[in-house]
Amino acid sequence: MEQPFCCPVCGAALTRQGGALQCPARHSFDLAARGYAHLLPSGRMHTKAPGDNREMVAARRAFLDGGFYEPFLQKLSQLVLEQTAGVPQPRVLDAGCGEGYYTAGVARALRQAGRDACVAGYDISKFAVRAAAGRDKQVFWAVAGSFAIPVADGTVHCLMNVFSPMVETEFARVLAPGGVLLYAVPGPRHLYGLKEVLYDSPYENPVSDVAYKGFSLERRVPVRGCITVRGEQIGQLFQMTPYYWKTPRDGAQRLAARTELTTEIGFDFLVYRRL
């Protein structure tokens, strides 16, 4: 299937020319050995290596491969299958795909259902995309950002966003009219057991049905569970959360002393329709 990305410089279609993607204006982007493209121009990089670093990506991958968030992947795959059921050759895009756990899982579910789908994922972290590209060779991967998505207008039928920035203007631009945005947000008590260790006064996550221009919110799909992590899994979980950056030292020390942690988990999948 034809790759879905376009030139990040001029917006023209990209075709493969040997070991690179090239547009008619001869803007060229090398393909890495693992097959992904770097479509984030240097002028849009605020640091030399934006996004998650190598250690954070490794921690996230190890934790997710442990199967702790499998219920979320199953529900997301079900929603993608439902929302693209009437599209002969759906294009599915994962915005901020990280190390590819959800992207590859959804691609696998679509293939198992016999769907002829084009699945792509991008992330601003080159370390994340490098790891993602090793998960599934049939998915199209790219280093890119959500504030200037290298995808043509109206060409995506289903856009997934799992805990990545919400950029409504760009998401609305790339989605076809009637296309769907599946936006995963933390449920009110997601990782509450972790926060009970980290903070003196743990708090529930706020719940709100936010209206975004160009979209209508159709429903909220909650997924709830409970997990127990042990040993190095505790640190892996901590490192893949925003709390890793804002937890007081004494809270981090309390967590480091734990050998086992039980916590509630919960995602809400918000189903938005592109108007």
TrEMBL record:
Q: Does the keyword Transferase apply?
A: yes
- InterPro entries xrefs: Methyltransf_25, RlmA_N, rRNA_m1G-MeTrfase_A_prd, SAM-dependent_MTases_sf
Looking up Gene3D superfamilies in the UniProt record yields: Vaccinia Virus protein VP39
A Pfam family in this protein? Zn_ribbon_RlmA
Q: Which UniProt keywords apply?
A: Methyltransferase, Transferase
Q: Which GO terms describe its molecular function?
A: methyltransferase activity
A Gene Ontology annotation in the biological process aspect, one of them, is: methylation
Instruction: Please report the stretch or stretches of sequence annotated as the Methyltransferase domain.
Output: 92-179
23S rRNA (guanine(745)-N(1))-methyltransferase N-terminal domain: residues covered: 5-44
Name of protein: RNA methyltransferase
UniProt source species: Ruthenibacterium intestinale
